[in-house]
């Protein structure tokens, strides 16, 4: 794929920055959306490109997903040797410590129980929607559900109001989190931890808008929306199949600059 000249220029400038963070969502970016989420597979070459980027000097790589951490580890095949940070549950989980300053205490456990009870009631009233449980959250899934049922269930879930519980609307999901973390706060925590000068993030979902917003204040950062829909991202590419071209361009330019 030939990248838009504006995006290509931004990537070239980004590649010339000091320490950088390259981060991406999983579903809808590294892997196309599929009917059965358990069968998601990264696009050919995408994980190899991320591993190659992570080996370049001053280049930190992360996959930031709404998936819980255990599932993300299985689906990506990332190991400790890959030097790729995995962040699950929208920032509530990570495979290495990050300075998020949040803890899952008794109050958080009570919020999670309340959120679970409320969302279970929504699912019971709108079959065959289903519930997914995460360490710090609970998710209503409406994929493969009749549109009228999905819409009614989504409205009911979004109306849940529990103090301290964050409600996130996404593609065919509504997620309730008992911890005050988002993909945006996770990106900021990693930028602080690695002392990077600029960050790049690719996302496709409504939940990724919080990440785009967190990076919008610094013109050195790059935000890329994958697919259609309104977005705060500065750039857009059409499909997950176009994502490897972004990584390849960044890898090639940064590798060249590191040897000159």
Automatic annotation (TrEMBL):
A Pfam family assignment: Trehalose_PPase
Entry EC number(s): 3.1.3.12
Gene3D superfamilies: HAD superfamily/HAD-like, Trehalose-6-phosphate phosphatase related protein, domain 2
GO MF annotation terms: metal ion binding; trehalose-phosphatase activity
Record keywords, A-Z: Hydrolase, Magnesium, Metal-binding
Reactions catalysed, as given in the entry: alpha,alpha-trehalose 6-phosphate + H2O = alpha,alpha-trehalose + phosphate
Protein family per UniProt: Belongs to the trehalose phosphatase family.
Entry protein name: Trehalose 6-phosphate phosphatase
């Amino acid at each position: 794929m030939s990248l838009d000249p504006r995006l290509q220029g931004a990537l070239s400038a980004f590649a010339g920055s000091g320490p950088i963070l390259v981060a991406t969502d999983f579903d809808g970016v590294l892997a196309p959306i599929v009917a059965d989420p358990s069968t998601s597979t990264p696009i050919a070459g995408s994980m190899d490109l991320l591993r190659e980027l992570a080996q370049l000097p001053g280049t930190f790589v992360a996959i930031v997903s709404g998936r819980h951490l255990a599932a993300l580890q299985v689906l990506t095949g990332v190991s400790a040797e890959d030097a790729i940070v995995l962040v699950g549950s929208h920032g509530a989980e990570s495979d290495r410590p990050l300075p998020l300053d949040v803890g899952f205490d008794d109050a958080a456990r009570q919020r999670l129980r309340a959120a679970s009870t409320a969302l279970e009631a929504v699912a019971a009233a709108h079959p065959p929607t289903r519930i997914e449980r995460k360490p710090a959250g609970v998710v209503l899934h409406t994929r493969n559900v009749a549109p009228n049922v999905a819409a009614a269930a989504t409205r009911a879930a979004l109306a849940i109001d529990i103090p301290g519980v964050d409600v996130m609307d996404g593609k065919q999901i509504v997620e309730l989190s008992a911890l005050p973390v988002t993909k945006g706060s996770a990106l900021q925590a990693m930028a602080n931890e690695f002392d990077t000068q600029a960050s790049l993030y690719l996302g496709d979902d409504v939940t990724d808008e919080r990440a785009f917003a967190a990076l919008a204040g610094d013109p050195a950062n790059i935000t890329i929306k994958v697919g259609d829909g309104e977005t705060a991202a500065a750039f857009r590419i059409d499909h997950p199949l176009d994502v490897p071209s972004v990584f390849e361009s960044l890898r090639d330019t940064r590798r060249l600059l590191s040897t000159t």
